Amino acid sequence: MLRRSLENRDAQTRQLQDAVTNVEKHFGELCQIFAAYVRKTARLRDKADLLVNEINVYACTETPNLKQGLKNFAEEFAKLQDYRQAEVERLEAKVVEPLKAYGTIVKMKRDDLKATLTARNREAKQLTQLERTRQRNPSDRHVIVSFDFSLKKCFVRYAVQK
User: What's a GO cellular component annotated to this UniProt protein (predicted)?
Assistant: First the structure.
């Protein structure tokens, strides 16, 4: 029975390791791609601002009717860039930052898994040692009971940690 519960925990641990590795890989990629998208959108906004400035400079050299039309166009184009700025800020705040936070969460989960694996390996060694003691000295009840008790104590401690 104890062996079966260890096998179940092994399967659960492997499943958790796979899930953490999967999240670590894909969320890292998502974060990098979204950050690159935000940077490129910000660069596009900067270029559009340069374009608006150049249109205004050109408008100053033209006739009054063309000057008014270019100024109106530059003003409307600048308003579009204000929306692009809002998009950049919202993407950073609502998408990139939460994805970055997942990096910390994944690292903590990976550390928890390492601690769990260490405890599980220690428990497996104790179980192996108990089996060896049972095979060598089946009549030495005192040693077997003390090993069995410490093993069950570890098992209970592990179950409480979960």
Answer: nucleus
